[in-house]
Sequence to fold (613 residues):
Amino acid sequence: MTEKGYIFLPKTADAKFQAFGMTLEEALSNAAYAMFSLMVDEKVAEKEERNINLSAGDIEHLTVKFLEELLFLIDSESFILSRIKSVKVEKKGRYLLSATIRGDNLKNYRFREVVKAVTFNELKISEEKGRATIQMVLDT
Amino acid sequence: MEIKKISDFIWEIEKQGKMRVPARIYASEELLTKIREDKTIGQTMNVACLPGIIRHALAMPDAHEGYGFPIGGVAAFDLDDGIISPGGVGYDINCSVRLLRTDYSEHDIADKKKALLDSIFREVPAGVGKESTMKLSRDAVKDVIEKGARWAVEQGYGYSHDTERIEENGCMKTADASFVSDRAIKRGLPQLGTLGSGNHFLEIQKVDQIYDEKIAAAFGINKPGQITVMIHCGSRGLGHQVASDYIEKMEKAYGTENLPDRELVNAPIQSELGQQYYKAMSAAANFAFANKQMITHWVRSVFEKTLGSSENMEVVYDVCHNIAKFEKHEIDGEKRTVCIHRKGATRSFGPGRDEIPEIYRSVGQPVIIPGSMGTASYLLVGTRTAEEISFGSTAHGAGRVLSRTQALRNIRGEDVVRELASKGIDVKGVSWKGIAEEAPSVYKDIDEVVRVSNSLKIGNLVARLVPLAVMKG
Fold:
């Protein structure tokens, strides 16, 4: 595992990465940090808080929706992520995700680029005892 | 897997496994070598497995790996038993390119180039973490996505005759805002009239070489040294959200179990969901048309302020890169309407088609193929051969060879800017890293891509344009 909790892999036109964690939740947080590492180079302050609640039929889709929600917050509320305070995944028939995230208004930062979309391409999620890995590709 | 050589520029993978038709790659040997390095061919073969696909799944000369369809993928589907797939259009719906011509020559702008670029950078919001200068209500956004470029003209952006020189006249009439989610509209609200990031750019160019004087003249391109402006942008967050929304809806309705790739999720063209996606996609396409119409207006006003006039600064044409369309094509000797998907490919219609503006109908449709930042771009003309062998399509650009991560590892933005400056090309971007990621060396050779298009006659060379100043979003 790298210190960052994610590594980028070679992929011609898009951004492919693997995010790791002791738990799925930790890997999800690292996936979100990987995505934001493409967009903002500076450290983002923790000035605002948002709550996210999502559901999906499978864990892959839930992961895509979580990252998509973070993109949605950039465009619609000018909110950029600094830190994921908490994230919890449960299975109650469907997969449910609830998270509390902290961040700041984007006007205070310079964007390198904006990720266009979160894709299902080469999406792989594995969970073994004590180690979760999320591999995904972002359209940039 | 065996790749059969059909001719110098046509390669075929025979029907195998679940493929319903063969896959064809239009490339030179040199480009094919690059194409074989990633998953482009496998993805083209996956497209060949989709229901209702007609004749071949195609990959254009600039093809590279995408998600679902390859970038540079073209496929036609039968209206009765065919499908429509967001993965065959892409997330950036109607990512598209517009070319403007001017009466200015290189000499006229020589000492104003920097001033022009600085003003363009000020007037045209990059939209990278910046909000648009427009403050629109949600109802107004609905108006934008149903009217497209015409909405912008009604608001005073540009001239009504501009819309005649845009694919679909700048408005896909099939657009229906009621099938665009609130989320998509919320994302679009602050982004109208912004360029966007990634490979999107705005470039001041000069005509470097003219290959066909008669057709160039018909397109308003008269002499080497003439100044042109190229704008490359798409439908921003609104289009991305439409794609994500319908991928989810189609997954729920039809599942992905039988698909070789989850990103190929689709719906029958005739299904309610298929029709809804088409109407929402059309709406996103119109957002992109309106976007570029506004940017055109700002570019004209910068030229007017800086050089004294924007007279005769006309739209040459505006082509869609990521789109699905219902078009008439000759299939087995019979003209019929099919659903064409072009993902990272340009429509290339020959003379006579009704879809081409009247002023160009006798020569063929202008085809605009942008290079990467700092390299040449090309103006081509559509052909009847394209209609026969590629469902009226050709390449759309250079196509990447190096990932962004690799680019950042090897290239510094500062060096790119210095190197381009030494060639007389000024570059202004939002960030150094953003510039490094789009460095000319991370793209395929655009000259080779258009050479193949011209040799195959799926888009014939008209003029070569080289950059003088680039704004990178």
Q: What stands out?
A: The two ends of chain B are 40 Å apart (CA to CA). Chain B touches chain A through 50 residues (CB under 8 Å).
